[in-house]
Predict the 3D structure of the following.
Amino acid sequence: MSKKAGASSRGMARYLPVLDWGRSYTPDALTSDLMAAVIVTIMLIPQSLAYAILAGLPPEMGIYASIVPIILYAIFGTSRVLAVGPVAVVSLMTAAAVGRIAETGSPDYIAAAITLAFLSGLFLLALGVFRLGFLANFLSHPVIAGFITASGIIIATSQLKHILGIQASGHNLYEFSLSLFENLGDTNWVTVIVGAGSAAFLFWVRKGLNPLLIGLGLKPRPADIIARAGPVFAVALTTLLAWTFDFGARGVALVGDVPRGLPPLTMPSFSLELWTSLVGSAVLISIIGFVESVSVAQTLAARKRQRIDPDQELIGLGAANIGAAFTGGYPVTGGFARSVVNFDAGAETPAAGAYTAVGLAIASLTLTPLIAYLPVATLAATIIVAVLSLVDFSILSKTWTYAKADFIAVSVTILATLAMGVEVGVTAGVLISILIHLYKSSRPHVAEVGQVPGTEHFRNILRHEVITHDEVLTVRVDESLYFANARFLEDYIYDAITGRQDLKHVILMCPAVNAIDMSALESLEAINERLKSSGVTFHLSEVKGPVMDRLLRSHFLNELTGQVFLSQHQAMCELAGPAKSRPPRKTKPKE
Amino acid sequence: MSKKAGASSRGMARYLPVLDWGRSYTPDALTSDLMAAVIVTIMLIPQSLAYAILAGLPPEMGIYASIVPIILYAIFGTSRVLAVGPVAVVSLMTAAAVGRIAETGSPDYIAAAITLAFLSGLFLLALGVFRLGFLANFLSHPVIAGFITASGIIIATSQLKHILGIQASGHNLYEFSLSLFENLGDTNWVTVIVGAGSAAFLFWVRKGLNPLLIGLGLKPRPADIIARAGPVFAVALTTLLAWTFDFGARGVALVGDVPRGLPPLTMPSFSLELWTSLVGSAVLISIIGFVESVSVAQTLAARKRQRIDPDQELIGLGAANIGAAFTGGYPVTGGFARSVVNFDAGAETPAAGAYTAVGLAIASLTLTPLIAYLPVATLAATIIVAVLSLVDFSILSKTWTYAKADFIAVSVTILATLAMGVEVGVTAGVLISILIHLYKSSRPHVAEVGQVPGTEHFRNILRHEVITHDEVLTVRVDESLYFANARFLEDYIYDAITGRQDLKHVILMCPAVNAIDMSALESLEAINERLKSSGVTFHLSEVKGPVMDRLLRSHFLNELTGQVFLSQHQAMCELAGPAKSRPPRKTKPKE
């Protein structure tokens, strides 16, 4: 830690990154930020409404959840361009958590969603303050990829009922699909035309509009931004059609009356019972939201050579969620789509987020009467098109080729998410990753090594042509030694010495041993004793500094029959004489 | 696997070790085994009665649990001298598990204990058949040591009520002690004299008799065996006193009528409800029993240069427990005291166990009328003296000096066991060990390294005087790379390159990297991209064979801006030229 002058203000800036960028805010940055804010505001209106509906909440809560949280993140967060608000996966997880407690859309349901945001905020803050952000690392990349893909499928399926204008419900994908199928007879064809038409339009916008605009002479960035505003066109057009042709009378579900005004002041519940039933979900939502947000923030920061601080991000997201809880919102996090638009639109500082908040506040004061005629099917179409871009099964083939363990983790995550829902899915993914890791490290790679002729290098006798000696057995263990693999090493050495009558020395080569815990120390003592009673001395080589420091604090080195050598080469010089003067015991070809 | 003739009979012998030693059974071995069996039988009678009482079961169940299980273990087990039967810790765990379901001593209680043995046997068999014995390794040595110590305290305390002749109960040590204290007024002084007298006698036998006998000219082994028969003298003497002076009429609790006869045929319950409530306890009892048994078996096998096969041990113990369930027993495992006596008495093959079983069967046919006058306080005294030798707090100071992580695990285990009972205690111990391990491996040791002058060795710049170069940064990571530490490495490298303007190459030295999972691969790709955009090339060195094989299956090596070097020395020769020709960047003294 620096003790120079200015350290304390730097310390403050660490917890309030706004002090850092706020000081050097230029008129140029102001212009860029304002531009970006206008674009993001327009895009956020339909997106926020849609995700609130996905979460089973009144549409205006999506707008509310985008206003105060974005400002709080701007003050406490470290990413310059992250846009915080409702996102698809977190909305789905909110629906799953709150749906267990109350009927969708009821006042209890809304109160639970607000409380969930509060708990999630508290948990994120606590992780940030105690610098426990590393916990999120236990959610491996493949598990996240699998989880997001499975969630995308669940979300897209859940929106089909709005596209068809029918009812459907179920606790998992199978039940829901069945219920959807049963009610297929109730399909409202006007709704289908609006929903499927919007979806087709949005797919075309995503794939075809961009090249078309570039073909017409637009530069890639504005072309991209216009293409991303596709949902706004769809919303405006279908709202106009619904108003003109009175779709409401034709059985098309419309968003309906949305209260006009700024976000209301709300209070989370402090019922212990409610907290108990929500706390598990809050933890899962926080971690998933954090991981998603950090990966978006890191990707965008890398493009501008900026760094983000994951522990401070926890504080930023925690503040945003607590803000959401007090202003009629629900759990939020940094969203991919909105952040990318913000970035592409040229946002330079988090102030762009604050201006977006102002834009959304104006919208919620003025535009709500127009939203009443917006068909729900249009919003469902925007959700489907957005989440289908998240669905990516390539992680299955990638992990299959690269590492079967990761493949198992991904498959379990996808299957558990689809079959048993988001919470079971993500928990299963984390647990299976940890179990596989523990299993693998409990069976470390152990190899007998010999000297590569003419060098000081020692390699696996099964992979390289090497020189070995009858009197010396060198075993290299490629893992830290700890309780789960200590007995494995004992077994390996006892097996390796069986039948080697000329053996005088066993050397354990430790270049990959970063730690030896108490259980492993006891195993080394047992090996030493066992070898001693057979008249074989036991040596260590290439023991790392920190491991050696620790061994010096135990009795092991006093009892060790052999020595500890700095290098394996030195050990062989001393124990076996110069390699050349002796014939190799065996020399196997490379495998 | 060998495909020669005889392989199939070896294969059979693997699952039926009796085929191995049975074939070469000699008259000499028969004599030794018979001698040992007589000694063990005499010692087992009081011990078996005592542990059944500790488990809250009728005393004869302790004898029954020693007959058929010991024979089944002799057939299926791999240790030549392990004696299977009731042991202290497993008896305590049985009482804890069954006590939750039924009132102590009631028919339901007995039925649950029998079912517990059955479930435990099934679980052990399953682990053995699927070769999952490695799972027991997750119970680290310090956790076991702490658990056994805490269990010893609980057992000794629980027996105080029998020594005092009063009632006491409680769900944990605190409640029990309080209840004991409240009922202190009911103390029966004759009972105290019998109990405390027996305990004092047994302590003296343990410490003082052995030297005395040796002083009288006996050889150490017979002296040791006589000393171990101490409980038999105490039992005989107090039984005689109780009969002579009619202790029963003076309020001394006696064992009372014990049915005379061979073990009865019993059936475990197949109630799903009972199974559900016992299965967790069965798993814990199995694992604790297995670990205890294997460590006894390994210790004794090592003294005779024999090997035991942990997976086959599971099958042996599984068969023993299933046998116990069908013959009026309760969960059993290999006991330390009985096995050591068996070993010291000269048992040569598992046949000694079978003869012991015959001896016990004869005892249960003939001696039971005598047992009626045996004071329970004498049995309590034998238990207290036996378990106090298990109590050993030195593990706390040992781990404190050697490794704080192990110290935390031991402390948590001891405290949780004392405060919340055996099941919570052992579970907490396992979980905390795994959590600490995951935490540590998520923050691997990463060091910047330089060349030791005049050698091909590269060491930590903070610990050794080494040569480094401005254009080359070499980072050695001392752990396999996986999801939990992948981001840590990214952060480390990004921090390390900050402000190093002359940097042209970053080398990741991987001698300790035994695996790179999908998440870590993605992190390496991210590092490569990030360095590329700063004009720095990224290299790997000393990548192990299996890791390299896997990297070759990914796209990473195509995208890598630098190379993969077989040795770090080679990397430096190529990237920085010969070390001598350049001035060292910095040379720090050894720390």
The mean pLDDT of chain A is 87. Chain A touches chain B through 67 residues (CB under 8 Å).
